[in-house]
Amino acid sequence: MQALFDRHFPLPQLPEDLDVFALAMELGDRVYARSVQLHGEITPRTAEEGMRVFDAYLSLYLPTHLPKRISSERITVRQDS
Q: Contact 2/15 with Cβ under 8 angstroms?
């Protein structure tokens, strides 16, 4: 996921020993899993909270606004098979 973001936005220096994008997704996913455990589904309220968890965690590493790369700055993302 970091490679996808980096393709479209210049990212600040991020930890090299931790994939903050993957961790943010896992944290949000845990909120969804808890909703399924409690309610048998992801409720609208917990869907909102899952996104808040994702956004809050990434806000520790990313600024509020990232400028979009212009097309000449875009980097090629290599897909490993």
A: no
